[in-house]
Amino acid sequence: xxxxxxxxxxxxxxxxxxxxxxxxxxxxxxxxxxxxxxxxxxxxxxxxxxxxxxxxxxxxxxxxxxxxxxxxxxxxxxxxxxxxxxxxxxxxxxxxxxxxxxxxxxxxxxxxxxxxxxxxxxxxxxxxxxxxxxxxxxxxxxxxxxxxxxxxxxxxxxxxxxxxxxxxxxxxxxxxxxxxxxxxxxxxxxxxxxxxxxxxxxxxxxxxxxxxxxxxxxxxxxxxxxx
Length: 227
Prior knowledge:
The chain is of the alpha/beta class. The protein has 9 helices and 5 strands. Strand 2, helix 7 and strand 3 form a beta-alpha-beta unit. About 25% of the residues are buried.
């Protein structure tokens, strides 16, 4: 069986591939074979364990904070400024569950993790949340979590000291829309209600697509994609 070495794919330059192929007798694979999953997982582990993941989050959070401060400084009289924040891999970290399930898992393991309600905060983003509140910017937590997960989610937010939000907006249990459509609709509703959404922060493109925010800030998430 042909198996690539266990290190990140981006380190396998063409000369390395050639040398390895020669040393293994010129192993030939199909022309359309995707990248092997094991090296990709190892690349993610290195990214996280090296501190790169935290540094990238902190860099985005710093830009978001600077923007909130700038925007609050030129607030017009009566203007109701709002920050929209995603939860998972934005304000809350599910990394412990991701690692425990080898970056896989199932609906059952995810439900069990949510039910515990003790995900740690992502510190740099919690700092953005707290700065927004100091600036008298309302915070709306907009998540793809289902409404049935509200009790453990509220418990979790109390535990991390982020429970003075203006709203925790969760997806209806029977809502079949893609997350992007759901979140766009909710931001549109907030805008129609008189909020100026000055920033929208999330880890997925689906958190940010669709407009109704002055600026968007994309956090890294190498673990999964949500449509």
